[in-house]
Structures
1.
Amino acid sequence: MANLQAISPNDRTLKEYILGYLAAITYADAQIGRVLTALSNSPYADNTSVVLWSDHGYHLGEKGHWAKHVMWERGSQVPFVWAGPGIAKGASTDTTASLIDMYPTFVELCDLTKDGVNAYVVTLGVTDNDGVAVTWYR
């Protein structure tokens, strides 16, 4: 961390930083588009689930903050997109879930042996967890 340069709001570096960040997002979006196009043109389009998630990314000056480590609720939320057979189009939920339980969820949906908690039932509203995400090791 000793090599990090301070960025002031009036610094030209600030604009370059934000443009670079947005360029990286644009590039990732284009690559995801390529994968989805290839999938839609393949024989696997009707039996393949697509799952995209990320960390919460960097703060770009919100509340004067330029990093990742904050205690704000927004800093603990991440994008999560899930599409495929059996997944309702346009569905969304405000239910709290933990990304650590995604792998066991996908394993179960693929009828494989799993270990962990199935977050799919949480997204369906079958389980009420009162907005609390709990992680444990068995």
2.
Amino acid sequence: MTLATRAEACDIGMIEAAAARLAGHARRTPMLSSPFLDEIAGRRVLVKPECLQHTGSFKFRGAWSALSALTPEVRARGVIAYSSGNHAQGVARAAALHGV
């Protein structure tokens, strides 16, 4: 079954597998505190600036993970992203790094 056809809930094993695929490829973005948001929320709020990620958004993480989960034979057929925004940029970057 491919990633596109799976509908089951995400479990810890899937999260750990995705983290392993991303290790060394996605940037580790910092967690930043925000006194302004802390005051509004009445508690500590941390912000993760994914704009520092490849292509400027978190979409690279999902694209890299999805392409990495494909077999080399499937990846060699190419990939398509139905988007002109951050998703397309993430897929394009991940595909280029995979040599697709």
3.
Amino acid sequence: MTRPMQIDFVSDVSCPWCVIGLRGLEQALRNVGDLVDVDLRFRPFELNPHMPAEGQEIGEHIRQKYGSTREQSAANRTMIRERAAELGFTMTMGEGSRIYNTFDAHRLLHWAGIEGRQRQLKHKLFEAYFTDGQNPGDVDVLVAAAEAAGLDGAAAREVITSGCYADNVRADEQLWRAEGVSAVPTVIVNRKYVITGGQPPAAFEKALRSIAAEA
């Protein structure tokens, strides 16, 4: 019997582990097939809500925020790129890459959810930032991602430039922080089961099968 399942995927557009987590989750969903009927929703979380529009060089940012050395940061990026490649995703971020503000991207994702194209947009935003090195806070980048996801470009531009859904995104962010989310990715299944981090497909699959068996 197919089990209905709601999955809330709390993440940020500039989080590399969120790419890995989403890819791992999607592979697990393919593996379990029709065991579950999933309603996958993307929820906002800003790792750097006060990041200025021009962003910050990634190596400098990591050293300031986490105290990592240049060598540690480089090794971590290499490991992340390898994990992503195993899941079919190309990451090109390096020492010269930049971290950007993602609030407008989250507003656009909220609208995409209303339009039924949220998952498609999420993938296009990840590709724009991590593969193409583009600024996910730039209006033209966001519009191009929306169009690539099958959304209307003019409508997307109106959402971005008008400030629509800002209150919705902030309320959502506060909600998930109040629920205890302090790092991403965090995956909440049926508002009860929590899976954290960029887990491999096998870990997600095991969790999904276990939850489905309890339903």
